[in-house]
Design a protein that fits this description.
By secondary structure, this protein is mainly α. The chain has one domain: MFS general substrate transporter like domains (Growth Hormone, Chain: A), CATH 1.20.1250.20. About 80% of the residues lie in helices and about 0% in strands. α11 runs antiparallel to α18.
Length: about 425
């Protein structure tokens, strides 16, 4: 890479390495363990997939409510790191507790708490991007975060996987193995955040005037008005709402889908490990391509790639096809997230990054309510899991149309300045 990262940029990237370990667990071991608990309680495969989807939807709904309001507060001097720390602790604590639970209902409840903490911490982590780097460096720094996050998360994941799959050979029960696996993930996640917490300073902020909560709501109202006036930002957020909704739905439900189809658990876990390994070089390569052409062109390619993936999932019924799906996801997953994050960071006011990224998260992880509920409801109504999963292709089509329009508006705005 031509760009050499600063110490602070590296520490920001390191947190992506840590939190990605939790993402990996949510995408792999969590749903398999939940399936184990639910199966012991007599829950059917279709209901298991639906309940997992509903839990993911509740998480994203909570973040959609909390993100913008707390994001507005975080834009005030010295608040960004404090709020980030609170949600980090909630997520880490929830991750540890999950390993000790044997009831599928309680597991879902604490999972909602842990994933809400994780997702909310990312609102403020993403908002820190404007403080740790400059606009012309955002694409590369953001991409480095996702790239190293994918490869770094493999370390605790492989350790956890070995314990879960081989625990019985050394006398560990399923629950004891899970306790160890969840603790490894939580500690990895927490330690990765320490360097950033020590070094981070909020450069862009607004001064506190009067009551913090009241001021934040007033500012949030003004921001809604600004976004409505700035059509290029508004339309991008609409586009992001749809296409990233499809991306996160696939991330949240891939393993659950494979489990419900009756595919081998070990094969599913190894396939998703391949996703991480493929994602690492893919993000870096596509970022280089984005530097040579335009980031918006690469984002468009990624949306089209996911549209193909969602259509391909309709006929998926073998382990080999799931592996092909895993490789395809790895090719586009990190890049579409990284370049969308940096593109948004470049078109918003830096001093309002907290509340803007709070709204961005509604259109991102918060929007996954639509996708997971769509999959869950259609699966239960039709009784066909492949129909439910392939329905998300509509989200990518709408997202692509809106994104291209948003890019055109932004280019017209820049040419008139």
């Amino acid at each position: 890479m031509k760009l050499k990262m600063t110490s602070l940029e590296k520490k920001w990237v390191l947190y992506d390495v840590g939190n990605s370990a939790f993402t990996m667990m949510v995408s792999t071991i969590f749903p398999i363990y939940f399936n184990y608990l639910a199966g012991n309680a007599g829950v059917s495969n279709s209901d298991y997939l639906a309940f997992w989807g509903y839990a993911a939807s509740i998480c994203t709904f909570l973040v959609a409510i909390l993100g913008p309001t707390l994001g507005s507060i975080a834009d005030m001097k010295s608040f960004k790191k404090k709020i980030f720390t609170v949600f980090l602790i909630v997520g880490v604590a929830g991750c540890i507790i999950l390993g000790f639970l044997s009831s599928w209902i309680w597991f879902l409840g604490v999972f909602i708490l842990a994933k809400t903490g994780y997702s909310a911490s990312l609102v403020f982590y993403d908002a820190m991007l404007t403080d740790v780097t400059e606009p012309e460096r955002m694409d590369t720094v953001s991409s480095q975060g996702y790239a190293w996050g994918y490869i770094g998360s493999c370390i605790p994941f492989i350790a956890s996987l070995v314990i879960v799959l081989c625990g019985d050979k050394i006398g560990l029960s399923m629950q004891a193995s899970m306790v160890i696996a969840f603790i490894i993930t939580a500690i990895w996640w927490l330690l990765s955040a320490v360097p950033l917490l020590i070094s981070f300073e909020q450069k862009h902020y607004v001064e506190i005037k009067g009551n913090v909560v009241k001021t934040s709501f007033v500012r949030l109202g003004h921001t809604f008005q600004e976004i409505w006036r700035e059509k290029h930002i508004f339309l991008f957020m609409v586009a992001f709402f749809f296409y990233i909704d499809g991306v996160y739905t696939i991330i949240d439900m891939a393993t659950a889908y494979g489990q419900a189809l009756g595919l081998d658990s070990t094969g599913l876990l190894l396939a998703l490990l391949v996703t991480q390994l493929v994602a690492f070089p893919s993000v870096l390569v596509l970022n280089v391509i984005a530097e040579k052409i335009k980031p918006t062109v690469v984002i468009t390619i990624c949306i089209l790639g996911y549209l193909f993936i969602s259509i391909f999932a309709y006929g998926l019924n073998t382990q080999l096809e799931f592996w092909i799906l895993a490789v395809l996801v790895g090719m586009f997953q990190g890049t579409i997230q990284a370049l969308s994050r940096s593109y948004f960071g470049k078109i918003i006011p830096a001093e309002k990054s907290g509340e803007y990224f709070g709204l961005y998260d509604i259109c991102g992880k918060g929007a996954a309510i639509l996708g997971t509920v769509l999959v869950s409801v259609i699966t239960q109504v039709t009784g066909k899991m492949n129909v439910g999963v392939s329905a998300i292709s509509v989200l990518f089509i709408i997202g692509l149309i809106c994104f291209r329009k948003a890019v055109k508006l932004n280019e017209e705005r820049q040419s008139n300045e």
